[in-house]
## 1
Amino acid sequence: MKCEECYSEDSRITPLMGAKECLENHKQYICGTCGRCICLEKDPKRNLQRWNFPFKSLEIAKLYLRSAEATIKNVCRIYEIISKNGRISYKIFSTNDELVNYLKWKIKFLEK
Ligand SMILES: [Zn+2]
Ligand SMILES: [Zn+2]
């Protein structure tokens, strides 16, 4: 059964990589319903959390959706982004404006 709070069926599916290191040293969002831990650690260089990065599948993005909403304190959506060469990635935003800003930044980055 899918958890209503964190949208996952498996309360132990995260962390996906380096579980021990993550649980011991990283700040976690702990689901109040199923107890699942979702990493909230900020990458010190870029000040970004895991949910800020693109995901390679919708399933993985869903696992981090709740941590985005807890951080932003608003409802978030997962957007499918298809690059010119056909590569698909998934990214979490809370507003369409954020998506547009990201795409603009991406385009600038590619033009360099
Ligand atoms: Zn972590
Ligand atoms: Zn849960």
## 2
Amino acid sequence: MLEEYNWAGNLRYCAAEVAQPSTLDELSALVSAAPSVRAVGTRHSFNDIADSAGVLVSLEKLEGEPVLDRQARTVTVTAGTRYGDLAAFLVRHGYALHNLASLPHISVAGAVATGTHGSGNRNGNLASAVAALELLTADGQVVRVDRSSPEFNGMVVSLGALGIFTRITLDVEPAYEVRQDVFTDLPWESVEENFDAITSAAYSVSIFSSLAGPSATQVWLKGRTDRELPYAGAADFFGGTAAAEPMHPLPGMSAVNCSQQMGVAGSWSDRLAHFRLAFTPSNGDELQSEYLVERGAALEALSILRGMSVEITPLLQVCEIRTMARDDLWLSSSYGQDTVGFHFTWKPQQADVEALLARMEAALAPLKPRPHWGKLFTLERDELQGLYPRFGDFQELARRMDPDRKFVNAFLGRKVLG
Ligand SMILES: Cc1cc2nc3c(=O)[nH]c(=O)nc-3n(C[C@H](O)[C@H](O)[C@H](O)COP(=O)(O)OP(=O)(O)OC[C@H]3O[C@@H](n4cnc5c(N)ncnc54)[C@H](O)[C@@H]3O)c2cc1C
């Protein structure tokens, strides 16, 4: 039985019924019969994006093994598969994904639907690896689309609005090794002067801070060992100091939950995420938000946010800065532009956080901040519309594919479809 609350415990799903079909026929019959239905993944979103006033469907029990196509360099999985489980399968067969989010606990479908990302100047978000999709639509039929399909780019980051992904095909590549090095206390002047050099120093880079104080507290460098890593083994990185022991990004927390550090090389699957599958990721007692802006506006955004640190710091557990490569997925926060994301892990004080988010969104408005679809934000449809050039095309696609609004929930009504 699906738990009633999301992972963070800040949302109680209002769905009248929760279903866990084990076959496609069961799922299809359920979707055909239900006037209102949504899929839910592993419940890691912080807002009501996954909720439904009718039936909530979890694909956790849906039958189907991963299928690796070595020639096409793809893997096809049932959509509810967790990244951590997929990674273990790929490692056994000598393959890898191009990136992971900070946690391997989330489902492929849930991550793809919200444009979830990891980091890396040249790494697209996790949805950019989707080569094909099987989507159960409002009439109970399965539609298969791939990159050659005309509206494919509208169907990937689709917020659950077009139907239920049943199987997802992702690009894979031969397995590679990563080493993770952490440096502490990078002075802000150095971060500002060397922003591009820092974010391009490794395959995937995360800069953690409280936004206040003289320096960013930690920089995590995930470097592929098949690339040059000039900082490897160095005591200093742009004024930061090599960490003497494994670190947790949140102050005062044990690094036992975190992926392998201290420059020890090993599988991509154990290092690209910050947190280990067998442990609680992050803090567990928290809320999250994230805003992504065009990469060229990184320093301006940083300056605006640091200027608000007196307001932000009292509610903040940690801020993380990451970069993502552009893609063509209509509702992706990296649509059409290389981006930088400012992520906030908040204390669990939702009313105070939301009041602050409205002020942060107003301050960042000139930079056109695109919020992470699965985290807390206060921007509404009229404002979001101006941030995504293909927003109107997506609305039209959703209305055509789901004329009876079977998949429209309160979130989609407020934020996207009206
Ligand atoms: C501790 C923590 C760390 C995080 N780190 C990151 C990070 O590093 N990077 C990042 O970008 N995000 C991060 N997130 C956010 C998270 O990745 C997203 O909220 C993601 O959507 C969660 O996936 P899920 O499987 O829990 O999906 P859910 O939250 O359950 O659902 C999300 C959306 O996906 C839809 N969906 C789910 N299954 C299907 C399906 N089969 N078909 C169609 N639609 C479906 C739902 O309807 C809903 O709209 C983090 C969240 C937490 C709690």
